[in-house]
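Annex B, item 7. Sequence and structure tokens for protein A, then protein B.
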Amino acid sequence: MTPAAQLGWRTGLISLVIFGCLLLVWHLATAPGQSVASAGAGAASAATSAAEDEYAKLMGKGSSSPVKTSGFPGLAQMGQTIRKELAHPFYDNGPNDKGIGIQLGYSLARVGLGFAIAAVVAIPLGFLLGMSPLMQRALNPFIQILKPISPLAWMPLALYTIKDSSISGIFVIFICSVWPMLMNTAFGVASVRRDWLNAAKTLEVKPLRKAFLVILPAAAPTILTGMRISMGIAWLVIVAAEMLVGGTGIGYYVWNEWNNLSLTSVIFAILLIGVTGMLLDLVFARLQKLVTYTE
């Protein structure tokens, strides 16, 4: 077995042990007590549970829904919720009761569209700033003023002007994605070795051909780094944005399930957000590896 393979096995084993320890701590922390007091409170707890089952029915959920009764949910409740959500991820019973697959799809679509628009704007503009010190100095004050503004601060203006909550969410994703891509593209283009640019100039390569065949491959790793950072920020912001605008999306799902007192569904959505974010980051890490070169 090669050293790299051995390292991979050890890393995976340590990760599994840590994961098992976390589950054990969770189980011990949420295990029901066997004290006399807790037994005496059983009748009251049963009455509360019946009332909450009735509330769950009114909210369009079955009486067997794992509605939080008291304390933090245990692993059995989480397993029940995960099994139920993954069994029918694309059901649609109306505006406030959609499957987790549909909600996740809405969020991914908003992030993908806002991110794509940001790439169309940021990468050409970054090329311009990287190739022209004059334009970089002229636009730098505006960038430095706009860049620190929180994306969510734009939400009231977006809702007022666009008057559509879904498009406003896409606009917020665009705003938060554009700056890392713009700055990294400008830095990558400006950092291209002068030897390569001088060689292209000596060979009388036309500007457009030089941009695509010399500058773009040289700056691609830095550009992909900016795109990877932008995607991470966009996935962070979409949850908060959807909590504000409501309607659909994984952020709205979290807020809606909290209003339904379904803490297990909230935890399930949080785990799903984390796994999805990890997969998105892995995609960009793989793309970054493809364009990375050694001199």
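Protein B:
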Amino acid sequence: MRNAFADELLTLAERDDRIVFLSGDIGNRLFDKFKARFPERFFNCGVAEQNMIGMGAGMALSGLRPICYTIASFATVRCLEQIRVDVCYHDLPVTIVGVGAGLGYAELGATHHACEDIAMLRSLPNMAVVCPGDPLEVRGALAAAVRRSGPVYLRLGKKGEPIVHATRPDLEIGKAIPVRTGRHVALLVTGTLLPTVVEVGKRLAEQNIEASIFSFHTVKPLDEELLASLFAEFPLVATIEEHSLVGGFGGAVAEWIADRPPRRARLLRFGTRDEFLHVAADEEYARRHFGLDAESIAARVVAELKASS
């Protein structure tokens, strides 16, 4: 995802001279082409993320389109006051990019985990929260974020995420992307677990369970029209995310359900439990710990379908 982001950034900057890039002292070699092409539009803000967000807000007030980039936990938890007051209060077109979101930096311990960022940022007025599912969605999400007139939080993986889509999807903020069609269960995934959920769909198919899969790249605003259709059509709808069950994508869908008349479908949520992971291990281990691997997700979906039949 990081390489796709860097390539798309360069492409967009060639077209729009308002784009400026602010880094929290990471990914410097990744952006060598951008720095060489636009040295006056690259700012390494150092390990001073709160200042970076404040700089971005000031640049946006001056007519620029700043993109602030650093590790997800530092871009959000550390900077929440600046994002809320400097950016969201003024409804400024600042794109805040958190890399290694969720458990992407699992091996570095809880300080680098970002499993609460969606909950915090989706509660802020004016903020859009976008979690692309593969490198092609990253390209579309960045382009859509730059076009938007208000703040956007763009939540990325770290590196090595596979491409899922055959071609670059026409990504629109607030509109989910269909990935697979089925009739027994709807799997709604946000962010970097998209390839895992595609694997879940294959495992369910081996058991004659046809799953529809949608990439809900936007947690705020939700694709409410599609949610209404899915909860009327399917007996079971599952939300899947690498984020806490408290306040994340599944929480947003649960709130949406609570404010409406009863629906046909039961909601099943997959995410990280309300706990810190006190083990320094890789992302694969961390996902298994929270039941976010393909085997665990498929088994639970099968069990829920059998229980409700």
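Comment on protein B: The radius of gyration is 19 Å.
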